[in-house]
Design a protein that fits this description.
The complex is a heterodimer of chains A (about 180) and B (about 170). By secondary structure, chain A is mainly α. Chain A has one domain (about 10-179). Helix content of chain A is about 85%, strand content about 0%. Chain A has helices at about 5-55, 60-85, 95-105, 115-130, 135-179. The radius of gyration of chain A is 23 Å and the shape is extended. Chain B is mainly alpha-helical. Chain B folds into 2 domains: about 5-80, Orthogonal Bundle (Rna Polymerase Sigma Factor, Chain: A); about 85-170, Arc Repressor Mutant, subunit A. Chain B has helices at about 5-25, 30-45, 55-70, 75-80, 85-90, 95-105, 105-115, 120-130, 135-145, 145-170. In chain B, helix 2 (about 30-45) crosses helix 3, helix 7 (about 105-115) crosses helix 10 (about 145-170) and helix 9 crosses helix 10 (about 145-170). The longest helix of chain B has 26 residues, at about 145-170. In chain B, about 35% of the residues are buried. Classes of the chains: A mainly alpha (about 180), B mainly alpha (about 170). The interface of A and B includes residues 98, 166, 176 and 177 of A.
Chain lengths: ~180, ~170
Amino acid sequence: MKTFEQQTENNGLSHLVSKLKTEDSTYANISKVIQIMYWLFIPLFLIMSVLEYNKTGNTDELISGAGFLLGFLIFALLFGKYYNEYKYVDYSQPTVKMLRQAVHRYQPFQGRMIWVLLALICIDIGLTFDKKGDAQIMETQIVFIGAVVFGLIVGLIIWNFKYKPFRDDAIRLLREIEG
Amino acid sequence: MNKEEKFKAIISENSDRIRRICRYYNGNQEDQKDMYQEVLVNIWKSLDNFRGDAAITTWIYRVSVNTSLTFTGKAYRRMKLLVYGDMQKVTTVIDDESLTEKLKKEQLLNQLQTELNQLPVMDKALISLMLEGISMKEIADIIGITEPNVKVKIHRIKTQLKEKLKNIDHENI
């Protein structure tokens, strides 16, 4: 016969498992939405750009569409990759390996930032070829670059308060263990 | 066996082990419960990565130690190594017979606990695993450093503790 304590523990465990399963299914749903974006939105955008080009015969429209398409594609692929990587931290790795990964994960500028930059350039090309006249192009550049710089500053502020302490602690622990 | 059954089986076999690790790192019961809960969550999240290439106990200790080291960020600052239970295990930290005899005096044991609490975080993690009776090889597998490195570190910690306790003992005489 189970004791009261064991029964309470089992009930608590079942409750926890059901919460964790809900969390798992939420993550799976987000992943599905990303997949839908890959397979529906991007081809749809491609078809729309080609149709627009066929209608107007304007090469700028085609270049603009290709720029947007490439930019979105890179972002979609990056998001999918980041999502799988950041969804769960694997705590079952040796401590040193886990800490090294934490240091890498929480550093503000990573090698893959080049891909983000490339996606932004593609979108900028898309925006630029979509506009007519120097004034409109200049205005677009100012707004776009301004928005990117603003996003970067906000991102760095969030990183400084939210993620930098984790990174500093992980570095300190690594030094302790390897020192 | 599905994930849920596997999870429940692991917890029912290892809950005492996990609770002990949580007790090493937290003074009050509420924090112990929170950390225990967090270890369970991390076991669930890491379960898909368990390939069986390490013993399940090593795997459990890895998750427990890694969780305790990153426990909501607060463990770093106020982590305590709390030594409970049997004197025999505690005195394995000090493998010096004359000192061990003296340690049995309550004051020195308290001093040992104070000194353990002042160790750097990683040293505490190593000592907590040692107090669990885990082999040096297994500790190396859990932390991710070589076995000789674990031996050197534990030897260094023991030497430091012995020196400190000897000094205190002399002062008392």
